[in-house]
Specification:
6% of the residues lie in helices and 31% in strands. It is mostly beta strands and 159 residues long. The chain has an eight-stranded antiparallel β-sheet, with no helix packed on it. Strands 4-5 form a two-stranded antiparallel sheet. A hairpin with an 8-residue loop joins strand 1 and strand 2 (32-39). The protein is flat. The N and C termini lie far apart (58 Å). Belongs to the universal ribosomal protein uL24 family. Keywords: Ribonucleoprotein, Ribosomal protein.
Length: 159
């Protein structure tokens, strides 16, 4: 990626992993699919089962070689989110409900203006939280130890 492309990165993404999108340009034009991965550093998305290209893999230790079909990334400008009410591609806008919660809505020509739900897959973490105590974590016996005792006044700094 050149330095000019880095200047034009999208900062506020409206297309999320798990969204149902329609491809509007390219060899798979008019087909719909779910977004499998978002590559924010390149403004690209990978759609499940779409934009398949042949990749030649050399044989190595532990894996077999051959010609495989893999999903290539599409530029984000070549896909649009599908309106849940009409089933047609639409732009995504942001609105605030009466209770103050932020939601995505469909907008554009022929859009219904309905709420686009947040994908359920986003609730699953891609990198799980660590369960093993690391070197910089505070040991549990120190956490449970009291630092200030109200009755005796221990642990109170001298003011």
């Amino acid at each position: 990626m050149g330095w000019k492309a880095a200047q034009k990165l999208i900062h506020h993404w409206k297309i999320l992993r798990g969204d149902n999108v329609m491809i509007i340009r390219g060899k798979d034009k008019g087909e719909t699919g779910l977004i499998k991965r978002v590559v924010r550093s390149q403004n690209r998305v990978i759609v499940e089962g779409k934009n398949l290209v042949k990749k030649h893999i050399k044989q190595g230790q532990g894996h077999e070689g051959g010609i495989f079909s893999v999903e290539a990334p599409l530029h984000v400008s070549n896909v649009q989110v599908v309106d849940p009410a009409t089933g047609k591609p639409c732009k995504v806008g942001i609105r605030y409900l009466e209770d103050g919660s932020k939601v995505r809505v469909s907008r554009g020509i022929g859009a219904s203006g309905s709420i686009i739900p947040r994908p359920e897959i986003l609730k699953i973490r891609t990198t799980p939280r660590p369960t093993v105590v690391g070197p910089k974590d505070t040991p549990m016996d120190l956490v449970w130890e009291k630092t200030y005792d109200a009755k005796s006044g221990k642990g109170m700094p001298d003011l």
